Amino acid sequence: MQERRPLASGSPQHLEVVDFLTVEAELLDDLKEREWLETLVSKDIIYQLPLRQTVERARGTGVVAGSFHLNENYGSLQTKVARNETPYAWAEDPPSRVRHFVTGIRVRIDDDPDLFHVRSNVLIYRTRQEQTTPQILSGERRDVLRREDGELRLLERVVNLDLTVIGTHNLALFF
């Protein structure tokens, strides 16, 4: 495996990654899921939300290898987006109000100039219908962005939530 080197904050490549994540959050917050999928997501996407357990420090992070709440590819993401566009998406009609807060963006590179390895913190604030208590999901995203036809695309996303029990009524949202 090639050694990954940190990209300096403020460098043109780092700013390009930050801009990508900012535009992505805006599209998802504005429920422009089709535009997000078609303009920012690679057809080779791996999109995972692993299970997490509470374990002693000596046993690691508690992320369960090979077990997922979500384990998606482009086709399954496309199906999820298409379903949300129908009148039969009862779990999200009317849609939730969602805000993505992305912070702590760290970018690493290796010898492949078209790949960016990105770690970021994400906080998702979600309200639904007349609920007075918001749902808050936080975690760390581990992304790989790849330059395709001159544009960055999301090639891989693994979201390690800080929760072991997800207290939300569905996972019909995008992280």
User: Mean pLDDT, as a whole number?
Assistant: 93
Low-confidence region ranges: none
- The N- to C-terminal Cα distance equals 28 Å
CATH class: Alpha Beta
Task: Name the structural class.
Answer: alpha+beta
Element-level helix/strand string: EHHEEHEEEE
Give me the CATH architecture, please. Answer: Roll
Q: Rg from C-alpha positions?
A: 17 Å
The CATH topology is Nuclear Transport Factor 2, Chain: A
Major sheet summary line: 7 strands, mixed
> Would you count the extended β strands for me?
7
Choose one word for the global shape.
globular
Q: What is the helix fraction of residues, given as a range?
A: 10-25%
Task: Please tally the helical runs, counting DSSP H or I stretches of 4 or more residues.
Answer: 3
Strand ordering within the main sheet: 1-4-5-6-7-2-3
Share of β-strand residues: 35-45%
